[in-house]
Amino acid sequence: MSRPAVKVRNPDLIRVKRCNSVTDSASLDGRGNVPIMELFLCAPPMPLLEIQEELTMTNKFFIYPILIVLFISLGISSCTKENKKETSESYSIAVFIPGVIAGSPTYEMMAKGAQKAIEETKNGSVKIIEGGFNQGEWLEKITVLASSKKYDLIVSTNPAMPAICNEVSKLFPNQKFFLLDGFLEGNQNIYTFRYNQVEQSFLSGYFAGLITSSKMEGANSDLKIGLIAGQEYPDMVKAILPGFSAGAKKVNNQITVDFRVVGNWYDAEKARSLSESMFNSGVDIILTIAGGANQGVITAAKDMGKYILMYDVSSYDDAPGIIIGSTEIKQERAAYEKIKLAINGEMQFGTAEIATVKDGWISFDNMHPLYLKNVTRDIQVKLDAIIKKLISGDTSLNLPVF
Ligand code: RBF
Predict the structure, then answer these.
(1) Which pLDDT value is given to residue 89?
(2) Multiple choice CATH, 91-195, 3.90.650.10, 3.40.50.2300, 3.30.70.100, 3.40.630.30
(3) Fewer CB within 10 Å, N or C, the chain?
């Protein structure tokens, strides 16, 4: 892990290093300096005293008190250095994007939040790394980041990342991780922040149920709604799909969900053809959670005069009258606020937080002018009532742990 590199004014001091752990190049900062705290921790104070022997009596009079203060302050900072950074404003983050940013709202929001937190940190630095769509390479890429020991914190997002980072953590036990949209408890170097996606998809399903049961222009008489996912993964099949179905069935128990999987997070053409087939089979609204492939779903809905429901970030303006509903998660805020905590040494590593509607981390964008214009008033009123119940805590939905 990189530590605040305090510039050593007297290069001779570097010669006093005696501890093996500072002989490896990873312990040097980018300019080849040994971080002074590390120097202090590993080398006994003796060498500094040796240097003092050369000082004149007059100098000693002034220098000793300064050295004592320096020792005390370094001693205090070394005791707290594991988890506390308040002694220095230097902080270095690697943001690992498991995929690409373009087209993936949760990734974009994470990157923005991290940048904002670092902009407010004197001597802070952030490096954003796109890991690409080959998921088999992510473990290796995270390993490379951790082994560089350059980053105080590695930040990432998606439900697959906790297991990957847990593996890397075994090899690099000093590396800290902050993982959004994922869940892992008990690793003292990992803090996770997961959204209650049962609540989020329940809201989506309830809204889709109201639309398919309605007499709105794009709605037909079939009680069928759709969900397209980039990939089939535990959170999708055990939280999002069941929540979506439960929400719709709260409106009408006869409603069925047509669930399809693109197989990746970028193939818009495949997503378009899947959507076309779903709309042809009687689906009138699709919830799309497919990253860059969402564009294909939107194209099909535009061509066929059907409806789209977005997830995580509201984007009504991308297809007015077609995108008619959207949940939102406050991922940018979460990245920003939690990284600030980490910088201040207050992140609760080893714990896992669940973010809910009640706590304000998940919502439905029911104030957007295009929502208010395109969705009938009776549907708005019914949706508002459910949102209110989740906010007040009258209704809460359990997120399974798996
Ligand atoms: N969501 C995206 O928007 N883009 C992606 O590239 C993406 N890749 C994912 C890869 C894996 C292995 C998993 C488990 C999920 C991925 N997601 C992706 C889904 C994302 O993390 C999140 O669950 C959904 O966006 C719903 O909030």
Answers:
(1) 64
(2) 3.40.50.2300
(3) C
